[in-house]
Model the fold of this input.
Amino acid sequence: MNPKYQPLMEPYRFKNGTKVKNRVVLAPMTISYSQLDGTISDEIIAYYESRSSGVGIAVTGSTIVTPNSKVFGGEMAADYDDMIPSLQRLAAAMKKSGSKAILQIFHGGRESLPESVPNGEVVSASAVAKEGQNVIPRALEEQEILEIIRAFGASTRRAIEAGFDGVEIHGANRFLIQQFFSPYTNRRDDRWGGDIDKRMAFPLAVVDEVKKSVAEHAKRPFLVGYRFSPEEEMTPGITMADTLQLVDALADKNLDYLHVSLMDFWSKPRRGVEDNRSRMEIINELAGQRIPVIGVGSIRTPDEALRALQTGVPFIALGRELIIDPDWVEKVTQGKENEIRTVITLTDQEKLGISDPLWHKIVQTPGWFPIASQVKQV
Done:
């Protein structure tokens, strides 16, 4: 291995004693490969085994905590105990090469598709329609909110029993937890909405419930992380100032890590703070001494990963890069970094084990994946 990349391969020990073998994380991406009932397919096993082999931490894509959580229709499920044997297969496959396996748990809220949820009833913090759609979600009632909070705890217990090394609370990408935090989607006037402290109530209650479940059921160190999106483009929406208040509160919750959801590691704040640095640098300055922060966003090469790591964040997550080249980490450790693939070709689907829904999104979303203009293999 080229010595300059050694910082990427340094082990890391969390405060709870969990030790990971390097600083590279498989970022969570929903690959829409599960069975209709949410159980794990052979294709999921193969996909996650190949993408988890070299990284220190591997995080699954979105896993539902209740039947009405679905957004894509191909999510994995942790909403019933019957799912535990299926989840055990996945955890074992992800851990096969020594990586730590993290189950990401979520609820889609208003992002859920009516055809993907029971009775076609979409729910959210408030009755605010999704942009570009006529479906108006029903605002959750108090008892339903409490039931969903408990569902996050129950899914955490199932992850523990299935052999995962942790869970990641999905508070990003406009899903339900973010819907409660956002002033755009949360128009409530009860204890779950209003000023920023009340809009943080649901996210923090989910954190407390998950940590309570870990304390009650985990017999060994078990990681709890939280993923969030720093800003929203709409007004009113989450600003960088809002996010820094949330990050400060989360850092005081004794979580094991924070995971920022960004398309570009070096992107700068839209509004809310006067700071010319990247969002990642601002967030890490605020919380990094209290809680490890995972950075992500358009990092393709080892040199780009090294530059990001040098900002002080202890982990770098790769998403699209590990879809394109599952052997990214191995090539770095073997001194073959020049052989890392950074583009995908139109004949790669089967070879890379990419599901039809994900492949269609890759091909039909300009700029999301770098696609080689030529059809031949590269």
Summary: The longest strand covers residues 100-106.
